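Sync notes, pocket subgroup
Present: LS, DG
LS reminded everyone that the earlier model was apo-only. Rerun requested with adenosine-5'-diphosphate included. Inputs:
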Amino acid sequence: MPTVDYLSIKSLSVNYLQRGKTVTALNSVDLALSHGKTGVIIGPSGCGKSTLFNVLAGLNTQYSGKVLIDDKIPRGGGETALILQDYGLLPWKTVWDNVTLGLQLRKKIPQEIQTQTETMLDKLGLLPLAKRYPAQLSGGQRQRVAIARALVLEPKLLLMDEPFSSLDALTREEIQDFLLEIWQETQLTILLITHNIEEAVFLGQRIFVMSPGPGQIIQVVENEMAGDYDLRGKVPFLEKCNFLRSFLHRREKYAAGV
Ligand code: ADP
Ligand code: MG
């Protein structure tokens, strides 16, 4: 029997060994997201968000609980793409070579690599920059290259770990809009980690609020305002932001024993 949810996490716990001591990074996390939806995870630093992504990307298999992506145990590779804050581009390769690398590793035929890369760079407005190196690009352009490199492999799940943190506010909004366009076009399932409450409300159809470490999901907020440009900054949007903000602050005070 297939599960209804594309992404299904039940009672996920992860422990690390730090100098001979066991540290619990995630404590019985439950999370579910349907196919083609956007989810956002928000929570304080150190609460286990990246740990959760490492499990989903198949990079950490030392966990307890049940984790399924499209009914399969995560093993990394083709269907799941992970984009990190520092872009993860190879500095000695051009934009073009960074984007083709994954296709080459998959041993695609050169003609296919050429066409797919060209189409993707064009879609992201990066064709004029194809011959540049990452050091010759702005932060926003680098992040677009990282997105192009992930999307050219046609993943079904896009994981983004604080992808826009180092961008200035304007570039950040541009890339948010741009991500939304891609999502509307491809109907990818997207899970994004952020510290930014407005970003969470603009992008996340379902918002998961995490407690300070050891991380648990303490609140799931359904958000029908996600993706609506017209509502951004309007009263209902700000009310949703304030609701999340007060909730996060409450938990922080609680954790600090205030
Ligand atoms: P977040 O991404 O929410 O900031 P992380 O998932 O990076 O949090 O870390 C959660 C907790 O696990 C932190 O206390 C961190 O120090 C610890 N941790 C993360 N990775 C490792 C590791 N490889 N070995 C030991 N401890 C780790
Ligand atoms: Mg992190």
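DG: The chain has seven helices and nine strands.
LS: The mean pLDDT is 90.
Action: DG to write up.
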